Amino acid sequence: MTTQQSVSTRRPASADRASARAGALALGAAAVSVLTGVTQVLHPQDLDPAIDPRTRVMLTGVALMLWALSAVYLHLARYARGRWASRTAAAGMVLLSLGMLSSAVNGTDLAIFPAVASVANALWLVGSVGLAVSLWRAGRVPRPVAVLLVLVMPATIVGSQLGGGVLAGAYLAVLGWLLLRGQLAAPASRGDSPAGTAIA
Questions:
Q1: CA 58 → CA 3, 4, 13, distances in Å?
Q2: HSE (side-chain half, CA atoms, 13 Å) at 152
Q3: Which residues pair with 50 in a beta bridge?
Q4: Is the Cβ–Cβ distance between 147 and 174 less than 8 Å?
Q5: What is the pTM of this model?
Q6: Which structural domain range is residue 172 located in?
Q7: Structure confidence by residue, pLDDT tens digits, 49-75
Q8: Is 124 among the domain residues?
């Protein structure tokens, strides 16, 4: 009995640590997203292909945010009915971050950046929609968390010049707080996952 109790208490502790790490990353991403959103409202980007120092710093910050956010999405797969969507979204974010870093380093967008960005954004969006649906169907997180996840990519990319980063950051801040506090939900154990729900 003592052994069983110790095992049962260790597993939640491990899950809590993973959630806390994901929550910290989400809160960091939220801070960068809000700061970027405010910056783009106050200092809109022009059509000059040359990238000024302020924009270089912003691109670097967003790239780091995307790396953090990809880890958060991978963690959210623990609450979903499959992992393909979180991996797809994460791949898109990492690819986009590499494109942004190349622009920041070179001071201008490379010729292949539009194509890379298009593929990366498509992966991020498709993965986000898939993950949101999977989270909804799994029913292990609050429904607003699943639904609003879809808006992070459009708010960050499409609505960037309108301060969409502020909205995305607000969502990520709530998500990060829930994860950090271990109040989002308890991931189902492997034994609880039905064999037929590997793909959402």
A1: 51, 50, 36
A2: 35
A3: 108
A4: no
A5: 0.82
A6: 17-44+57-183
A7: 667 788 888 899 999 999 999 999 999
A8: yes
Length, in residues, of the chain:
200
Which residues fall within 8 angstroms of residue 118, CB to CB, at 6 or more apart?
none
User: Is 49 a domain residue?
Assistant: no
Strand partners, 108: 50
DSSP character at residue 158: I
Asked if 81 contacts 138 with a C-beta cutoff of 8 angstroms, the reply is yes
- On whether residue 7 sits in a domain, the answer given is no
Looking at the 3D structure of the chain, how many domains does it have? 1
**pLDDT tens string 87-142:** 999 999 999 999 999 998 888 888 899 999 999 999 999 999 999 999 999 999 99
Secondary structure of 76-140 in HEC code, one letter for each residue? HHHHCCCCHHHHHHHHHHHHHHHHHHHHHHHCECCCCHHHHHHHHHHHHHHHHHHHHHHHHHHCC
Q: Which two tokens stand for residue 32?
A: 């960068």
Task: Look at residue 50 and give its three-state secondary structure.
Answer: strand
Six-digit token string for 30: 């939220």
